[in-house]
Amino acid sequence: xxxxxxxxxxxxxxxxxxxxxxxxxxxxxxxxxxxxxxxxxxxxxxxxxxxxxxxxxxxxxxxxxxxxxxxxxxxxxxxxxxxxxxxxxxxxxxxxxxxxxxxxxxxxxxxxxxxxxxxxxxxxxxxxxxxxxxxxxxxxxxxxxxxxxxxxxxxxxxxxxxxxxxxxxxxxxxxxxxxxxxxxxxxxxxxxxxxxxxxxxxxxxxxxxxxxxxxxxxxxxxxxxxxxxxxxxxxxxxxxxxxxxxxxxxxxxxxxxxxxxxxxxxxxxxxxxxxxxxxxxxxxxxxxxxxxxxxxxxxxxxxxxxxxxxxxxxxxxxxxxxxxxxxxxxxxxxxxx
Length: 337
What we know:
Layout: E1 4-5, H1 7-19, E2 34-46, E3 51-57, E4 61-70, E5 80-86, E6 94-97, H2 98-101, E7 112-113, E8 117-120, E9 123-126, E10 130-132, E11 136-142, E12 148-160, E13 169-178, E14 185-192, E15 195-205, E16 218-222, E17 225-230, H3 233-236, E18 249-250, E19 254-260, E20 263-269, E21 275-277, E22 280-286, E23 288-290, E24 293-294, E25 301-311, H4 322-325, H5 331-335
Parallel strand pairs: 1-18, 6-13
Antiparallel strand pairs: 2-12, 3-11, 4-9, 4-10, 4-12, 5-6, 5-11, 7-8, 8-9, 13-25, 14-22, 15-20, 15-21, 15-25, 16-17, 16-22, 18-19, 19-20, 23-24
């Protein structure tokens, strides 16, 4: 389905490419930072179960832009995993399929332009700022069913700045899939500590084509209390009064770039209204075909990519193994026949 790009989204793309989060209005400001970049275009080999170091930075700084592509021109190998480590920790605080990190869920790329991330042709780009106080490490892993051998290109821009040594915030990201959703609820993220949730991607594969899935609310469990963030999935992702014919669109902070053969892909960035927590946060979304009725009969397949900032580098949920990530939607229903 063709995506209609708005003028506003196009302008945001132009502004964010060079200005990071500061915008054009702040480009004149001179800081105490010193820029550095790791940019490569070469052939890499990652055997099954192996890893490849994309880049490593020492000291304090902030990643300002990260892009990646390979010779498949957007048809990503689904066994390719991205792991990002902060401050010398042995565990990653971002851990997910690299395609899904950019919103290409399951390795399928659909172009869109948002304020935080962009997929344009075969270029996959993130503008999310990623501060670190004592080093950063970007790693590709291969947990798939074959060796990965191909030419790739990528770039990681950083600002090395001693002032980042006192910044406690670290970007976290995790991948979750419910195939199918159980008890009408899909968990998108869960964290303990202090920070704020900034959004991400959601893909819903509808079990029965033509059935509307979008009555599910986003539920936030913040510091021991719970509330409904919006009265319906389409509201949460920037539309209202939608239906199975929900049209595709992309905008700076929300979008629905894919609705095809029962597959719906969405994104939402809480730039102006992050969901803040002091002790803990759990974000869930309901799978509902009718208001107030969990889809326990005929539940759908949900995959989410969630991002949040939190004090310190923390562990995130480990993605399901490759075979589970690749399992077709509703496979168990077919087996029962």
